[in-house]
Amino acid sequence: MGTVNKMDYKSVDEHREEVIKLLTKLNERQLTIFKHMARVDNHLEKLNGKVAEHELKLMEIKTWGGVAIFAMPILINIIMRVM
Description:
The chain has one helix at residues 6-82.
């Protein structure tokens, strides 16, 4: 079978160390990305809440506007008849 050089073992060990370093670096990057995504999700939740509030305000304004458009001609007609 043959003897194996110490260089072969060393290169395998070096390769393992490099792979472990790269995997560790990738894991750290992945954690950073997940933390950043969590912050973005929190920010989007806040924005969605504000959008919901603004939609309610717009609905209220449209409702009062519709009531005013309906009621104003009636009020003007009543005032014109009284005078």
